[in-house]
Amino acid sequence: SQPLFKSNLCPCTYSIRQVSKAALKEESKPKQESDESFYNSQKFEVLYCGKVTVNHKKAPSTLIDDCIDKFRQHEIERKRLRLLNGQRSSTEAPVEFIVGDNPLSSSLCEGSTRRRHASAPNNVQPSDADKNRTMLFQVGRFEVNLISPDTKSVVLEKNFKDISSCSQGVKQTDHFGFICRDVVESGPAQYVCYVFQCASESLVDEVMLTMKQAFTTAAALQSSKNQIKLCEACPMHDLHKLCERIEGLYPPRAKLAIQKYLSQLSDNEQVNIFERVQKMKPASDHEENELVILHLRQLCETKQKSHVHIGEVPQQNASGSTVTSDNSIAGRNKLDVLKNKARSSLTSSLENIFSRVCVCVVRLCLSLQWYCQQYHSTVTVFFSSGKSLSICCFSDHMDGRELLPLSPRALNQDQDPQVSPLSPEQGFGGEKGRRSPSDYRALWKKAIHQQILLIRMEKENQRLEASRDELHIRKMKLDYQEVCPCSKEVQALWDRKLSSPCRTKVQWDKEEIHSAVCQGVPKSRRGEVWLLLSQQYRLRHRLPQRQQPPETPYQDLLKQLTAQQHAILVDLGRTFPTHQYFSTQLGAGQLSLYNLLKAYSLLDTEVGYCQGISFVAGLLLLHMSEEQAFDTLKFLMYDLSIRRQYRPDMISLQIQMYQLSRLLHDYHRNLYTHLEEHEICPSLYAAPWFLTLFASQFPLGFVARIFDLLFVQGTEVIFKVALCLLSSHEGEILECDGFESIVDYLKSTIPTLTHSQMEEMITKAIEMDISKQLHAYEVEYHVLQDELSDAPPPSEDSDRLDKLEKANVQLKKQNMDLLEKLQVDAARLKIQTLESSVESFLSRESKMKHLIRSLEQEKASYQKTIERMRSSLPSDAMADVEMTQLKSSTNGKAKETCKKP
């Protein structure tokens, strides 16, 4: 498992908050998550401009523009001083932008400036314009990385939790930056703004959108995880919140926050902590704060043992002791883990602090004593018995660092006593007493000599390790099966040719070189042979001035930004994905390939970057360095005219497809007819062969052998190999009776060649000569194109017919429009009629409802009248009335019945 903290951080900066956060991260985050976030990331090419120290984590909108102005002022001032002094190094004050142990750039640093704004740039450190400042800005799932393609390493890594804001320039819209927390070894944490430039404003917009989406996704992932529930009343949790509040504050403000927390404790606890801290005699507020936190941690741990979490009820067992349930034990398990880690981390931190302080004071006192005896200065040093010592006074103008020899490493107390100028047997108050200045001088001289020896040995070890790594990378690059291996005599022949002092100035016999290449090329020296062949070709064939590539140095091209960065980054993972050198995501192979493709896209603005060039450049990188590969790529593109097939119009590729089709027609008529019957043109299967020079589908050993012939025979070898491949599989292709089966055989089966088949193909290609046919086919293609372009114009009748057809089409269109308009009008009229009838129905309905309501009211009034009359009549009269009503109703029904027909 990874250590909780990196060893190069100062132990003073550790806090309980950091321990708890690290524990939470370790327990809630899967182990493979970092790998997934590395591969599932977005990458952008940026230009590092510099960094600015700010006072707040939130910055104004004009911060990026202000930083750019500051950087420009620094650059102008540096150039002015350089011109005045006449030497470059004397004007530069090196201030390193250090991330971990890797300095990103050397910069100029301003002196202390007056604060103009709470978040204004306080300490500006622009990057060195003379160095390559182009970087790859990678946005992962939980962090952002800044990768240097030059050093092939990650120079900056920041988690999202440390980034407080990200903004784009208002005036400088192609610039952006983010503010993050930067923990320094001495003093509190500070906020730093890193500023970058992109190739265009649209790219900055894409970066900002990606950052926003990444922050949102990371927050969603964190919220979806199982959160550790902590008791709010826990003493350790209160201490954790205190550490959160004081983190990043200046010592005086942190001291006030701590005193406010102490006021909540009891009087005895406050007095106890105060007495303990005063016994330690802290020299500064920062040291006093750390001592108070240390004692608070001990107090909180003591309280935590007897603390009962919220919601937990203590239970009494048979013996009367209080025990907690299994749930409470499981609930406190997480917090106990955090407490133990905090205890172990802070204990080891304090031990390191005290040990370092003692060693530094011992050495400083020894140097001061020798300085006093030698020069009679005003410094007085008192040594006490044993290991204790005290320093009474120092001269105000004296700096202890000036008295100690500067060394790139600090002497470790665990080393051999002979290495350290002070061994345990040589104490200050021991048996031997004080030593003379000559003894101390001899001890220091011995230590210096041994230190120099150690440095030399370390440099030698580094050189040996670099040599071993280089051999390992070279072995990794050439990890492919060689086709047509050359004999020892041929290897000796190439060794003599490569060691010839005049190989770059004297032309050699063309037939001799051709014969040597046909016999074979040693794999270990293939890159040197390609360089030699390109130099010999340039001696025989000099390009006209207008056709030569620009003479821009490779390193200058790497310092620029390319607009093709997105396409290049996408194709990095597709180029030789199974090869070990290129398989690592943004490893040394992919970064070298990115540099090469980027440099060529900036050199050749007409072609830029086209798919297929990455395979050609990748094969060159397997056999030579970046700059050699870049020079060789220029030779292939310009001197051998391969760049024509990558032009945006693709005319050269069309000519090549026509030439291959004519070769099949003349040499393999049956195969040509079979492909034409199924409408399979050469562009369906042969375009990748020409664009990648067979590197995307065929074994590397076979492709490397094709490149050997390419340097001596030119692009003709591509046609010969393609024709040999198709002719050797002619019978199997003729047996395929469908479009899909033929295309699948051409794309999948043909590239799977055996070793003997590959050697046979190379031998046939060497013996074949089709240069005249290719030239004739190219002329034929241009003639056909001229005939098509010079075709006679159509006659007057055909023009008149075309005009009539156009007029007919227009009339039909007008008729359709009119018909549609009539239909629309009729529908609209019908709709209006229906709406008017609906309105009339609604009005009649409302009238009928009103009439019904009036009749019901009249009926109700009649009924009330009848009830009153019934109540006023006697019972006998009521019976007569009912009989009268019954008779009248019966007669009325009978009359109605008679009236019916």
Automatic annotation (TrEMBL):
Any single GO CC term annotated in Swiss-Prot or TrEMBL for this entry: cytoplasm
Primary localisation category: cytoplasm
Example GO molecular function: GTPase activator activity
Gene Ontology process terms (BP): cellular response to insulin stimulus
SUPFAM superfamilies attached to this UniProt entry: PH domain-like, Ypt/Rab-GAP domain of gyp1p
Compartment annotation: Cytoplasm
InterPro entries in UniProt: DUF3350 (IPR021785), PH-like_dom_sf (IPR011993), PTB/PI_dom (IPR006020), Rab-GAP-TBC_dom (IPR000195), Rab-GAP_TBC_sf (IPR035969), Rab_GAP_TBC_domain (IPR050302)
Family matches, as Gene3D superfamilies: 1.10.10.2750, Pleckstrin-homology domain (PH domain)/Phosphotyrosine-binding domain (PTB), putative rabgap domain of human tbc1 domain family member 14 like domains, Ypt/Rab-GAP domain of gyp1p, domain 3
Keyword terms: Acetylation, Cytoplasm, GTPase activation, Methylation, Phosphoprotein, Repeat
Identification of the protein by name: TBC1 domain family member 4
Lineage: Eukaryota, Metazoa, Chordata, Craniata, Vertebrata
